[in-house]
Design goal:
- This protein is globular.
- With 382 residues, it is an alpha/beta fold.
- α3 runs parallel beside α5.
- The longest helix has 17 residues.
- The protein is 26% helix and 24% strand.
- The protein has a single domain, classed as Alkaline phosphatase D (PhoD) (Purple Acid Phosphatase, chain A, domain 2, 4-Layer Sandwich), CATH 3.60.21.
- A six-stranded mixed sheet has the order 5-4-3-14-15-16, covered by helices on one side. It has a six-stranded mixed sheet with strand order 6-7-10-11-13-12, with no helix packed on it. The protein has a two-stranded antiparallel sheet with strand order 1-2.
Amino acid sequence: MKARNIVRLLGMGLLAAGCSHQPAGHHGATAEGSARAANGTKAAAVEGRAPTALPYNPRGVDFAQAPEKIAFAGGANQNEAQPLWKTVLAASPDLFLFVGDLVDATDTNSISDQYKKLDALADYRNAREKIPFMAIWNDRDLGTLDGGADAATKAQARRDFLNHWVYVKDSIPFNRDGLYHAKLMGGQVSGKRRKRVSGPTMQVIMLDTRSFRSPLKKASEGPRRFAVNDDKSATLLGNDQWEWLEDQLQKPAQLRVIVTPIQLVATEPNAENWGLFPHEREKFFQLLKKTKAKNVLVLSGDRRLASIAKTDVKGWGPLYDVTAGPINEADAELENDSTYVSPVYIKENFGLLDIDWKRKRVGIEIKDIEGKTVQSVSIKLN
């Protein structure tokens, strides 16, 4: 057996950051599955109803190898069917990144019940069994539309999120208030004396734009919902997360995928985005230059539409922000932004990264519910 295959098999059998890798179709218990089953049983006892057994075993992430194909999207309503997952499965991704609004809990007294409804959807369960997932929350998961640090639902929503996404609970310090986290994939180290790294390394950084965000500034007039907040003390990420992000950007990786639930590059649409906090947006760009981070790609959600935006960061280079979703209930309207490289797509969709590590290229595609490519761009890795 080739050495690479041996390393891969060993990686598949190890627990990595709280996620045990489960091959497709495997029905053994996982740490995430067991914990969620226990949580469901406790909730049922409190509510005076019979507990329901966990109907599936989520597949964990194999951190031993850098993925070659990554699917991503945000915006899912747990009260409706989600047939898009069939199309996602057909694309055979190595990883799926849920970029926020995993459930809509903005009009409910029980956020945890919304995750149970999500689990009850067969297409979603099937995808979770066959594809490793990573996830971060947005305002609908928070339970407060456009909510931030002061959201009354924050504490309960955080507990319910961690009960559903157990790998996140296992990935962050016990005393961390936010849900931000990061993972390195690939780059296996071998050798006892002379350490050698074999294979490419990819980093996934999941930013939390809810836990610490300052209140939005309401627009006093005109059609826009919000006004730009020029207060230098206003924040999106908070001091601790900024310091953490600087450390993460200095770790060696051939590709960095940064997930921000709200759009970073596009600032003109009448929606929540980094442009409402211009000092924070500029701080992000300056941090790229300070850390000399290369091959950074931003993924976002929130908008219930798909777009590919590009900006040139002076002194650093071109930066792409790819927005994908929704999973279901497409209800967005057409819009423009000077950074969009092509017209937006407003029906159900997901994004797909096709990474060619040997040729050092990343193909970026937006796929519709039939699996057809509706937007695309290719970038070269340095």
